[in-house]
Amino acid sequence: MNLKSLFQDFNPAKFLIYICLLVFMPLLALRLDETISITYWLVFSPLWLWKAMVMFGALFAGLVWWRHPEYRVEGEGYVDMKAIVICLALNSLLFVFEIMVCDQLQNDAQQSGRTHNWLVVFMPLFLTAPVSIAACVWGFKHDRGLELEAMCSINILQFIFIALRLEELITWNWAAVFIPVWILTCLMCLIVLYYIIWSILILRAPDLMAEQRRAHLKAAVGALALVVPLLTFEVLLVHRLDQNNDLPYVAVFCPLYITLIVLIPTSFGQRSGNHWWFGIRKDFCTFILDICPFLREYGNITIEFGGIDPQSDEEDSERDFFGLTKIAIIEQPPRIVMPIISIETPD
């Protein structure tokens, strides 16, 4: 595996989101358990960092777009800028929602009374649904991956149920409130079951290469490692909210930590992020290598996983020998051959 090829498909935006969530979730769990007594404004600081990076990245991209019109025709410049505008609009709505939730939780912790109705707090999250649906249609048309927009558009019914339950307009238990999540999780479990069955069939197929079998097995294991901890977290959270157990929130959130840790490697090996973020107009790996030229030497290092197969070494040496032989034959200068008997020579 070449380090340069690995980081060339690195998506820094997804990596930042997963890291921020991985820091935010333990802080939230510790604050809900009252293990720490910091304000909710500090608990939500990783999310503020995420939104600040998105806003500054879009701001710098807009400045470069405005000051250099000649850059707009490079590649898919217009498509990239539209994607940035959509992402900025969605993250702005999420930012307003997070501020209102943080203010509501802080007021409840200080027992100073609620300042907002929960339906009003969730209103920016409700507005993300039409924006996310339009973004998903646009992304499908222009071959753009929009994972956050897809999650917001799918879970809109779940957001409505949670807002109504927090406002006590409905008195269902939390297991009934999370019905949309159960439906989505069941679909994910079916996909995981499909991956597992398909990988078993691939492993038993004798006419496939070992790399193909390994790839299908990794996909099945990865899907299983994502869905099982997520389902465990949802079950534990529902039982905790319905007061069927007295587990601390730190223990309830533990399976979610596993899911986030498994998601972090997915930032590598996929299509890279938008090239117009911060106006860099190139791949993130290329941008870093241009800033730090000394990293190019380490970026070209190849890492071999597993032992050395002597048979493969013999095949490689044999291939190199025949390759050198062919090159030597091709590189020989052509020789002029004269006939022994010429037509002009008399008998």
From TrEMBL:
TM region positions: 12-32, 38-66, 78-97, 117-140, 172-198, 219-241, 247-268
InterPro entries hit by this protein: TM_Fragile-X-F-assoc
One Pfam family recorded for the sequence: Tmemb_185A
Annotated keywords: Membrane, Transmembrane, Transmembrane helix
Protein's UniProt name: Transmembrane protein 185B
UniProt source species: Holothuria leucospilota (Black long sea cucumber)
Lineage of producing organism: Eukaryota, Metazoa, Echinodermata, Eleutherozoa, Echinozoa
